[in-house]
Specification:
Layout lengths: L1 E8 L11 H13 L1 E3 L3 E3 L2 E7 L3 H10 L5 E9 L7 E6 L12 E5 L4 E2 L2 E2 L1 H13 L4 E4 L11 H15 L5 E4 L5 H14 L3 E5 L8 H12 L6 E5 L1 H4 L5 H7 L5 E6 L4 H11 L4 E4 L5 H6 L4 E4 L1 H4 L1 H12 L3 H10 L1 H6 L7 H9 L16 H13 L5
Parallel strand pairs: 7-10, 7-16, 10-11, 11-12, 12-13, 13-14, 14-15, 15-16
Antiparallel strand pairs: 1-4, 1-5, 2-3, 4-6, 8-9
Length: 392
């Protein structure tokens, strides 16, 4: 079904000019009560509504027959199966930047299944379906766990588009489009936006590195040409480059830079970043062993390796923190800590691939220079998975 999405906001001024007391009374009532449209949606704050293709024209006309029509910020076509009309998708507090605060919960950094040296798209589709069935909040395609470093440009683009199409709007898709070549990061990011990715994940430039000033220029150059929210990815253990809290503060003023996946392992630096950014930048844990600590400081979730294996449990951990059930979240964090450590007993995604192969989702084939997990670590990993209650 093709549908139209409207982003709406309440409006305090009437369309055209009105005179006299008779016009003022309805205006006061409407400011207090919000605007009811088609007897189904009351606009009391910025919100997003979805209408079927047949219904959007009369809906739009109805907006402007009212003396106080909501402002239509944007309208765009979406394709989604079994879409209910007039569905409230997301509300935004008045005055808030609509592109900020877009990420929340557990997002899986998906592995990329391989078979005979090629991407196994059938296995990838099955993995996506399993993740959505198990309540995952969003999906990352072509991240580090997805072996993006050894995907060629054609494969990278194909996998982003395939993931977007397979998901079909059921959860947000975050596309990894980072590079140490700014012009290529721009090109790949623009493509991901074009094929429907909901957000972008950009790692800091690696190997050639740069200064903190160069980081600002690099990320802002990408932000200048995209129309989707952008998540920064800080992982100094891989890149030898660390984003400093002061740099985050500078970048947080860019409306398209909405969050940072923080994997520097430094809780004090995370606290300083949250303090300096004053709510302009969401912090996402990039380490599964720090989900609860980072969310306790105000983080909004995790981009997770663990959730390849345990999507529902990782979702529940984040959900508990977001609902203020810290003890429940901490219990899950500690329960799965041995498994989290086992999934990093060798370079990610080597253990994750082995675990997912054991669960029947794929082969444990990787691309060189990554190779299969050692026999001793494989045995330890499987034993810990069993101890965690996973049926092997």
């Amino acid at each position: 079904m093709t549908s139209v999405v409207f982003l709406l906001s309440p409006c305090s001024s009437a369309k055209g000019k009105t005179k006299g007391e008779n016009a003022e009374a309805p205006k006061r009532q409407n400011r207090e009560a919000g605007r009811r449209v088609n007897n189904s949606v009351t606009v009391t704050q910025n919100l997003c509504v979805v209408l079927s293709e047949k219904e959007y024209s009369p809906f739009f006309r109805q907006l402007f027959r009212n003396s106080l029509p909501p402002i239509v910020f944007s309208a765009f076509f979406v394709v989604k199966k079994h879409l209910e009309t007039k569905t409230l998708l997301y509300t935004f507090p008045k005055g808030e930047n609509n592109m900020k605060n877009t990420f929340k919960g557990a997002s899986t950094a998906l592995i990329t299944p391989m078979k005979d040296g090629r991407i196994d798209f059938d296995a990838f589709a099955a993995l996506v379906e399993d993740q959505i069935k198990n309540d995952i909040d969003s999906l990352v395609v072509c991240g580090t766990t997805g072996e993006s470093a050894t995907l060629n440009d054609k494969e990278h683009r194909e996998l982003i588009k395939f993931c977007v199409d397979q998901v079909g709007g059921r959860v947000p898709v975050i596309a990894g489009t980072g590079s140490n070549d700014t012009s290529y990061a721009i090109e790949l990011s623009a493509y991901a936006c074009e094929v429907g990715a909901d957000m972008l994940l950009l790692v800091t430039p690696y190997y050639n590195k740069t200064s903190q000033r160069g980081l600002i220029k690099h990320f802002e150059a990408v932000a200048d040409v995209i129309d989707k929210p952008m998540i920064l990815y800080n992982v100094p253990s891989r890149t030898s480059l660390n984003i400093l809290p002061e740099t985050y503060r500078e970048l947080s003023y860019n409306e398209k830079i909405v969050a940072a996946k923080e994997a520097n392992g430094n809780i004090s630096a995370v606290a300083e970043t949250i303090h300096l950014c004053e709510g302009r930048l969401d912090i996402i844990s990039g380490n599964d062993d720090q989900i609860v600590p980072i969310m306790a400081l105000g983080g909004v979730g995790v981009i997770s390796v663990l959730s390849n294996v345990l999507p529902k449990e990782t979702h529940e951990m984040c959900k508990a923190m977001l609902e203020g059930r810290v003890a429940d979240a901490a219990a899950l964090q500690l329960k799965y800590l041995p498994l989290i450590n086992a999934l990093f007993c060798e370079t990610n995604p080597i253990p994750a691939k082995a675990a997912m192969a054991k669960l029947g989702f794929c082969t444990d084939e990787l691309r060189l220079p990554l190779c299969e997990i050692s026999d001793s670590n494989r045995a330890k990993l499987f034993a810990i998975m069993k101890d965690a209650g996973i049926n092997l």
